[in-house]
Amino acid sequence: MTDITFKGGSVRGKVTPPSSKSFTHRAIILSALAGGKSKVYNPLISFDTEATMEAMRSIGADIHVEGGTIHISSNGLHAPDRTIDVRNSGTTLRLMTGVVSTFDAETILTGDESIQKRPMSPLLDALSSKGVVCSSKDGKPPVSVKGPLSGGDIEIEGSMSSQFVSSLMISAPLAHSPMDIRVKGELVSKPYADITLSMMRAFGAKVEETGYGYHVDNEPYRPRDYTVPSDYSSAAFPLVAGALGGEVTVCNMDPESKQGDRKIADILKMCGMGITGDGDRITCKRTGRPKAVDVDMSDIPDLFPIVSVLLSTADGESILYGAPHLRFKESDRIQLTTDMITALGGDITGTDDGCIIRGVERLKGGRIVHDGDHRMMMSAAVASLICEEPVIMEDDACWNVSYPGFVEEMSSLGMRCDRCTR
Hints:
Distance between the termini: 6 Å
Structural class: alpha/beta
Radius of gyration: 21 Å
Strand content: 25-35%
Strand order of the largest sheet: 22-23-1-24
Number of strands: 24
C-alpha cells in the first residue's frame, strides 16, 4: 500500500481550479435529454463525471470527449439493458434515478461500498407516489425503478439532500403532464437547486420557483452548447492554503456564479484574511492567526472539512452549524472531520449539525484516515501548512473525484509532498 505525506511549507502563486463538477454532471444529462447534438465546453473530466457519461451512454446517448470538449448526441433514449453502476458518485445516482423513472421498463442502479450506504428513501417515496415502482435495500442502493413517471403534484422531503429535488426537477419535463414539486421542510443546499433551475432554463425547459417549491411544464429540452464555469468548491482548497501558508490567487472564477460555495471568500474575510478580487481572479493572503467565527453551513456543506481546517488554529471558539445532512455524504463528514482534526492535534467536538472548534496555536500532524473522501483528503493536505510534523494518509488518488491534478498544483505552489510504499 502506498502512502502520501504532506510536509507543509509556504505557498505562493496562481492556480486555475477545475471546472465545476455539479455543472458538468447536469450539462451531460441535460444535453442527452435534449436530443440532437450538444457540446459541453470546459467540463470537469473526473471519476464522478465519467460515471455520469457512462450512465447516459447506457440509456442511448452517444458521448465522446475530444480536445477537452464533451460531444453529446441522442435520438430516442430508452431504459438500459444493464445495471447502471455509478461507482462513487452520489450525484450520478440521484439524478439518474429521476431520469430512468420516466421509462416503462425496470432499471437497477448501484455503486461502490460507500454508495450502498447512501440514503435514497425521500426520492424513492416521492417517485412511488406518482406511479413509479421502486424497491431498494432498506432505502439504500441497489435501487430498482420502473416508470413511467406521471405529472401533477409531487411532495418530497427537502431536509436531507437538494439532489433529490434536483432529480425530480430534471425529470419533470419528461413526465406525462406538468409537475408541481412541493418541498417539505427547509431545502438544504438550496444553491444546488438554483443551479439546476438555471441550467434547465438554459436547455429550454419551462420551470419556475414557487412558494411551495417548483412548477415544471412538460416542454422538451432543446440542444445547445454549454460552457462549464470553474468550481468554487475546489477553489476553497488553494484559497485556504493561501490563508494559512502564504498567498494564493485562483483564476477563471465567475464573480456572479450561483454556486453557494462562492461564500468561501466571505468566510475568509470574516476570519480576517486578506481577500482581494480582480475580475475573474481572487487572491487570499495570510495576515496572521484566523479570527474565530460562527458559520451556517446549511447551504455550503461541501466546505465543512476545509473550513474546519481553517478554524482549527483560529483565536477562540468557532461553531459550524446547520448541516445535519453532512452525515449522509461520501462519508459521515461530521465524524470524519472531527476524527481528522483530533488526530492532527486539534480541539474539536462534533455536534448533530456541525461542530465546535476551539482553536489551538498550531496542529501537531500525524496520520489521518480519509476513507476515500476526496474533500477530506484535500483538507488534510492543506492542514499540513499549520502542522509541526507531516500529515500522512493513504495514497488512493481519491482527489481525482473532483480535483484532478490537486497534488501537482499544491506542489507547484510550494507545498512539500512525498510518496512512499509501506
